[in-house]
Amino acid sequence: MTARTLFVDRVVNLMDEGQDVAIRIGDLPDSSLTAVRVGTVCRVMFASPKYIKKHGRPKRPEDLSDHRLVQSLALGTSPEWKFQENGTPVSVRLEPRLRMNTNDAVIELVCKGWGMSRLLSYQIAPYLADGRLQTVLSAFEMPPMPIHVLHQEGGMVSAKVRAFVDFMVEHLRADPALN
């Protein structure tokens, strides 16, 4: 069996792109695709223990303007960073000192104590688990976003695609970083 993958940070039309399966994060629009929910993720602020010890831990989203921020271009370039307080949306206009196009580079820089950033929880889960990173402002996180495995419905699905979907659903649901 062979597979071809396409990793993009945008919504694609499965038919137009010639894809059989997609994994999407976020609320789904109505469509003719079959969606199987496999977990959730949140956008989380994080920093290294070294950075927190030297510069302190922000108590409120507004405090972020006093910190060195690294922004991942994968999450967009909006100067408005969204949080919530007791279910009420809170937007803070921030000017990151550095914007980077790869999440790995953002994580590496933050691990070294250069600043703070924000990514999806699954992307930094191993670094939280081993103590290289810590979350900040957890009480202000936006609600979790669902993760779905999508595919064509019904009789159009080949046995290979069905087997792959079943495999992905089982493994994603078992991943503690997504649940």
Could you explain how this protein is built, in words?
By secondary structure, this protein is an alpha+beta fold. It has two domains: 16-41 and 145-178, Periplasmic binding protein-like II (D-Maltodextrin-Binding Protein, domain 2, 3-Layer(aba) Sandwich); 43-140, Periplasmic binding protein-like II (D-Maltodextrin-Binding Protein, domain 2, 3-Layer(aba) Sandwich), CATH 3.40.190.10. It is 25% helix and 30% strand. The strands form three sheets. It has a five-stranded mixed β-sheet with strand order 7-4-8-3-9. Strands 1-10-2 form a three-stranded antiparallel β-sheet, with helices on one face. Strands 5-6 form a two-stranded antiparallel sheet. A hairpin with a 2-residue loop joins strand 5 (80-85) and strand 6. The mean pLDDT is 88.
Task: Provide a brief overview of the structure.
The chain is of the alpha+beta class and 179 residues long. Helices cover 25% and strands 30% of the residues. It is built from five helices and ten strands, in the order H-E-E-E-H-E-E-E-E-H-E-H-E-E-H.
Layout of strands and helices, then pairs:
Elements: H1 14-17, E1 21-25, E2 33-41, E3 43-47, H2 49-55, E4 69-72, E5 80-85, E6 88-93, E7 98-100, H3 103-111, E8 116-120, H4 121-129, E9 134-136, E10 145-152, H5 159-174
Parallel strand pairs: 4-7, 4-8
Antiparallel strand pairs: 1-10, 2-10, 3-8, 3-9, 5-6
